[in-house]
Write a structure and sequence with these properties.
homodimer, 410 residues, alpha/beta, Aspartate Aminotransferase, domain 1, Aspartate Aminotransferase, domain 2, seven-stranded mixed sheet, four-stranded antiparallel sheet, globular
Chain lengths: 410, 410
């Protein structure tokens, strides 16, 4: 009989969001009157419309595909040059970072990229993730056999968890042992915190010393307000030799339903083969993308390119201003109601300490019962998330003001 | 140092299309006058514009995303119900096949699906492919360690090649040994041939007996003209217990640059785990898709859905009529010029015997030199392709008539 990939059986069932849905439903069953005023602050999805510049460009692209003279079929699997070029100029050169066009790979999402990049890496690599962590980093490694079984607390044997706490400003300490692949995500989901130039430099130094690989998830870089915070790992000297960067148009431009992202793979980045020779990662990723992917919709790529023209840039700024305005309102309301709050100044997430003596789920239940507000329990993101909860700034202004109002009565 | 997936080093460099490009360039360098009348008949990409029904639906979808009340962010990773439902009705129920909506998984392409489905299958499975073969089936398995090294002729140790020749009507004979996973593609690329109900039944019977998995690539099913030829493997009784089907909107609706396809995974389909227990594949694929993918663009899915309304259906029929009209013209011209021709009656590809004593590449060179026509040498698709060449019907009518004209002077 043909065999299955049994690593999938190690996966703990997705627990966090189904359990949230279950508790919300149970609450609504007993409090049907709450259905009209329940506000969901747990969601990491955008709410505001797609920028006009992107819509106009996509309308035009559709019409191009409707005419014989301008029809386009298969595009380059790595993405169209027009978009790769804009990215190198606006996202990198403008910040003093030199990235070649052929080091940019356009994709349909960072979630896909984060999973797919693992295809080109050896199974024996020791993986390190931040705790709390975006669960997909862990699950995609478990699926590929880079862990042992799950523990009772949901973590996996064989994966290194790097604790992020107020004491280390939510940037993990450099580990004593050697790890091969390190996931870093800044601005961070779920904690909403950022990493300074110095903090990232320490990690780049570690990675170069141990010849480790940093997978740097910068999906939220556009939300950074502080001019001293790096937007890209490549702002750190030496990062081209040790880091892959993941970026996305999802959150900054309302593209979660449109699907466009990209990965940067510098040519200097070397790994080791089973024969013990060093090889550049770049041709491996190029081969992976050209053989197992067929490129992103031309229409979508034209929409993404429009985000770099002045009108598109201005609309992205308006979106960021909206969500970061939400974050400020939420942060002020939480501080006024005597909460200890992290994040929310350079990221669209707030990470809040549960009041003394409450677990994450107890806070969840209380917020639901008393305020009809759905938050995300921090323990759902890992052991170090226990005693915290996350509130998302992705919402309409009206709902955010209502949440602030309710919190002021707590 | 972090390690690379060294299986990638087993891959032979992509040879076929780069070598074609090299020879065409060398020819044009010495015959610059030919640049204006060179006709490329090697390409498997569509040429005709996107149907109006799809364009209109995509324009509307873009406007929905532009309004707060109708904005949509993340969609279901498995695809929107509106599209899954249309597929079950029009592609399956209409042909007497019962497929549940949640057995349909919408994706951004069959190439991606064909690669990704391998993630959920054990590494030890014995793979069998048709010869000649679409190279991606082989390469994606080599990348995952399901082969040994490449042989001199480009094939891989450890992969079973099933010869397709005129003697077996280009449907491979049932092998004597047991294989775990069998790729079947009908209508076939590159041979343009189809498989009868009886031929597919023999394979389903084999797969059920050995508890093997058939990966059935039906990307070209819409080109079938003969009412007796199955469009889906599920038209064969028992196939739900042994087959996954891959379908695509690329070729039938001009979607190669738009990107939409789907995979069917029936719930009855069982594989074996490392612990020796049988498990349904369906939850494995659901987990793979929800964890490593974020769904297809809402705009694209609305465009695909429009292909099922009467106007969209009529436009797809017009496209099929155009390409199959091309195929008929090419076939008639090739027969009139005394070629032995296969395919081209239920598929957009013609598979032609090289004249006595010529290799595939010799025919390629002669067609280029004498006729300024670029064909695809059959040997590029595998050992059993030697002595054949492929001509694609994906072209404008004008160019196809010109090709026919030139062939009549051969």
């Amino acid at each position: 009989m043909f065999s299955l990939n049994s690593n999938y059986l190690k996966l703990k069932a997705g627990y966090l969001f189904p359990e949230i849905a279950r508790r919300v439903q149970a609450f609504l069953d007993t409090h049907p009157e709450a259905v009209t005023d329940l506000i969901r602050c747990g969601i990491g999805d955008v709410t505001e419309p797609l920028p006009l510049a992107a819509r106009e460009a996509m309308h035009e692209a559709i019409e191009e595909l409707g005419q014989p003279a301008t029809f386009r079929g298969y595009g380059p699997e790595q993405g169209y040059d027009f978009l790769r070029k804009l990215i190198t100029q606006h996202d990198y050169a403008a910040r003093g970072v030199s990235i070649a066009e052929d080091e940019i790979f356009i994709s349909d999402g960072s979630k896909c990229d984060g999973a797919n990049i693992l295809d080109i890496l050896g199974t024996q690599n020791q993986i390190a993730v931040m705790d709390p962590v975006y669960p997909v980093y862990v699950d995609t490694n478990v699926m590929r056999g880079r862990s042992s079984d799950a523990r009772e607390d949901g973590s996996y044997e064989g994966i290194t968890y790097l604790e992020c706490t107020p004491e280390n400003a939510f940037v993990p300490e450099i580990p004593k042992e050697k790890v091969d692949i390190i996931y870093l995500c800044y601005p961070n989901n779920p904690t909403g915190t950022v990493a300074s130039h110095a903090a990232l430099s320490a990690w780049v130094e570690y990675a170069r010393r141990h010849q480790s690989l940093i997978l740097f998830d910068a999906a939220y870089e556009a939300f950074i307000q502080d001019p001293n915070i790096p937007h890209s790992i490549y702002e750190i000297p030496g990062a081209r030799e040790c880091a892959i960067e993941l970026r996305s148009f999802s959150k900054k431009a309302g593209f979660t339903g449109v699907r466009c992202a990209f990965t940067v793979v510098p040519k200097e980045l070397m790994g080791i083969t089973s024969a013990g020779t060093q090889r550049s990662l770049h041709p491996f990723w190029l081969r992976r993308m050209t053989t197992s992917f067929n490129g992103v919709s031309y229409i979508t790529q034209r929409g993404a390119a429009a985000l770099y023209i002045p009108q598109g840039k201005a609309e992205v700024e308006t979106l960021i201003h909206h969500y970061m305005g939400n974050a400020t309102i939420l942060r002020d309301a939480l501080l006024a109601s005597h909460h200890t709050v992290y994040g929310g100044t350079n990221a669209p997430y707030l990470w809040i300490k549960s009041p003394q003596g409450e677990t994450s789920w107890q806070t969840f239940d209380r917020m639901l019962d008393h305020h009809h507000i759905v938050v995300t329990p921090g323990s759902g993101f890992g052991k170090a998330g226990e005693g915290y909860f996350r509130i998302s700034a992705f919402n309409s202004r009206k709902k955010v003001l209502e949440v602030a109002q309710r919190l002021s009565h707590s």
